[in-house]
Every structure is written in structure tokens, then in C-alpha cells.
Amino acid sequence: MPAEGVGLLGVIAVPAGGVVELDLLLESVVEGVLVTGTAATVVEGECSRCLEPLSAEVEVELTELYAYPDSTTDETTEEDEVSRLQDDLIDLEPVVRDAIVLALPQVPLCSPDCLGLCVDCGGRLADLGPDHGHETIDPRWAALQERFDGNRDNPEEN
């Protein structure tokens, strides 16, 4: 894979220098070479709710026809519709990269039931516990609350 990694960098991606294992079958067909098989790799990123680091294995199925030069497929399709053999060589990188990127979750989660972060203190809700909370006073009543709190200290003023 390329040195810069593959995927949504900063969210979830194959890290730079990551290894992609290929298990492929190449078959000669009338119009070219049919490549089928799987590509597997490990992706790293962070949970989109709680920002904890995560890693996961991704395996994708590949099926791609590489057309022979001057074949009917080569002559009847646009250049970007079908992959082509170049000097009897097959470039697998674009096909593998596209398949892996399409298999990545748009919203990666450390677990499906991740609670995320507390909106008040920024702590991870899974670590804070179910009884975690913050007392909030409606700002419209804050002055009245301060008056009552002051009277508790001096009950003679009532």
C-alpha cells in the first residue's frame, strides 16, 4: 500500500506501511484476465463517539476483469470502465484500494452500544458509570437560586 495509508486518514484507515494480504485467483478468459479473491488488512482509527483508539480487521471480496489490448471489451468500453493489461502486467493497487475504502465504516465505533462522551465534563460515559450527572440550573432562575442559598446561611433574614 502507499506510504500515506489508505482510507479516511484521521478517522479510520490502513496505517502508513500497513500490510494487505491478497488471496487471488487469476483466470485467462476470452476478453482478458479475470481476477477473483479476497484482500485482508487491519485498519486503525478512533471511535467517532468516545474518541478511543480502535483497530479492526477488514476483508473484502474482489472481482475484476483486466481486458486484453485490442479485445472486443477493450474496443467497446471507455477507458475508466474496465481495467486493462499494460504490457502483460496487472495493476492491482487501484482495485484493492477502492474495495478497502468502500468497506470502511463511515462512522467507526469501538462497540455498537458506545455511549460517547459526557457533554458537560467530556469524560467517557462508559468509564463514568450510570449515576454520572451534572446539576444544571436554568440561567433564568439562577438569581433566585442564589437568593435562597443565601437565606439558608442566615435564617433570621426570612
UniProtKB/TrEMBL annotation:
Name of one Pfam family that matches: YceD
Family matches, as InterPro entries: YceD
PANTHER family in UniProt: LARGE RIBOSOMAL RNA SUBUNIT ACCUMULATION PROTEIN YCED HOMOLOG 1, CHLOROPLASTIC
Protein name: Metal-binding protein
The organism of origin for this protein: Saccharothrix longispora
Lineage, highest ranks first: Bacteria, Bacillati, Actinomycetota, Actinomycetes, Pseudonocardiales
